Amino acid sequence: MITFKTNLGDIKIKLDFDNAPVTAKNFQQYAENSFYDGTIFHRVIKGFMAQGGGFASGMEEKTTREPIKNEANNGLSNKRGTLAMARTQDPHSASAQFFINLVDNDFLDFKNESTQGWGYCVFAEVVEGMDIVDKMTVVETGRFGFHDDVPKEEIVIESTIVE
Fold it and tell me: From CA 26, how far away is CA 56, in angstroms rounded?
């Protein structure tokens, strides 16, 4: 269990080591190393998802470890309240950034092992604090440099507790 203590409230997350062992272990290592402390949810799109894990306050990008293998072919679906790894166009480029699905986003699920079909690996779910995640969607967002949908008032992960 991992708890993000944010400036909006606590979000408790249960990792799925059975279906996404590499991804869950990767996320837990970042959490244990306090990597997420002081990071912000830098992309929030109402009716879609809230993304974090890669930027400190002021949109300062953090240095991550090497990318991990995409485990999106694990049978899990991008349903409301699940966490999935964010990545670039390269299916196997996820490192520290993640997103919380605000609604069922089945179109992000694994379809096949092509660049377009790999999907986004679900590796955890919010077990407490989905109301806090929903609060994120009412903040005003805008553009910051090259980034869209950035909350105008930062949503900060102040500390991380790994149980």
Answer: 19
